[in-house]
Fold this protein.
Amino acid sequence: MDKTVELPLRAQEDVVSVRQTVRSHAVAIGLSLVDQTKLVTAASELARNTVIHGGGGTAKLEVIQEANRRGIRLTFEDHGPGIRDVEQALKDGYSTGNGLGLGLGGARRLTNEFAIESKPGAGTRVVITQWTKKS
Ligand SMILES: Nc1ncnc2c1ncn2[C@@H]1O[C@H](COP(=O)(O)OP(=O)(O)OP(=O)(O)O)[C@@H](O)[C@H]1O
Ligand SMILES: [Mg+2]
């Protein structure tokens, strides 16, 4: 029963839709309330980055299934300017804009799996996954 949803991320209101879609699927697969909130918070930060820094892009939501657990995998992708130094961008307090510089590092801490790929001039892709407890 795998499932994929694709969502556009062009403006602030799209960030709200992503939050809502992530929350409803997180509830549906049985993530704990704490893990739901962590995932929604991380998704919100990454969606905001896609809009603000990436110039817009997409969010993909996949419901994934293993033998004894289910998960939600989210992929945020844009074809914006990319990030020259990803390690630096992940550090708390680093921002090239007006932000606090907490979004990227926060998203990594809040999720079970975090991967980022970015190429200057080509774009950025961030993938996060949150799993239910094993049954
Ligand atoms: N999708 C992206 N495309 C290009 N640069 C990005 C992208 N996402 C993050 N960055 C870069 O990484 C930096 C750190 O991101 P992070 O989300 O941690 O902080 P921020 O967005 O600047 O502030 P905030 O705390 O409000 O999220 C950004 O300032 C930006 O330079
Ligand atoms: Mg941010």
Remarks:
- The radius of gyration is 14 Å.
- The CA atoms of residues 59 and 117 lie 15 Å apart.
- The longest strand covers residues 57-65.
- Residues 45, 48-49, 99, 103 surround magnesium ion (ligand 2) (CB under 6 Å).
